[in-house]
């Protein structure tokens, strides 16, 4: 859920809904997140998906200059890994064919950084 603490997964075949929240955020008690419980200022800000993974950008809402990290989940809501970025991207997209993440910054130059994520796929 953009700018919130939660990822929702709806199985269209069964109608089953699963929700996963960043630990320590207001609301529910069920969590599966690698963030420590004191990080109330972090939210899922942007996401991208393919057939195997959900990529969710975690941003610090109090400090937009913080470099974002990406939480990777499978479609069962299981945490897979954290991807750390070395640039201050504000949005990203997934190239599903070439398995690359493209990050764009907020500057007027509109810099784009590419991260290869093929190693995540079997």
Can you describe what's shown?
It is a single chain. The chain is mainly β and 122 residues long. The protein has strands at residues 6-10, 17-21, 42-49, 53-60, 69-74, 79-84, 89-95, 100-105, 112-116. It has one domain (6-120). The chain has no helices and nine strands. The relative contact order is 0.16. Residues 26-32 have low confidence and may be disordered.
Short description:
By secondary structure, the protein is mainly β. It contains no helices and nine strands. A four-stranded antiparallel sheet has the order 3-4-5-6, with no helix packed on it. It has a three-stranded antiparallel sheet with strand order 7-8-9, with no helix packed on it.
Write the layout of secondary structure elements.
Layout: E1 6-10, E2 17-21, E3 42-49, E4 53-60, E5 69-74, E6 79-84, E7 89-95, E8 100-105, E9 112-116
Antiparallel strand pairs: 1-2, 3-4, 4-5, 5-6, 7-8, 8-9
What are the salient characteristics of this protein?
4-stranded antiparallel sheet; 122 residues; mainly beta; single chain
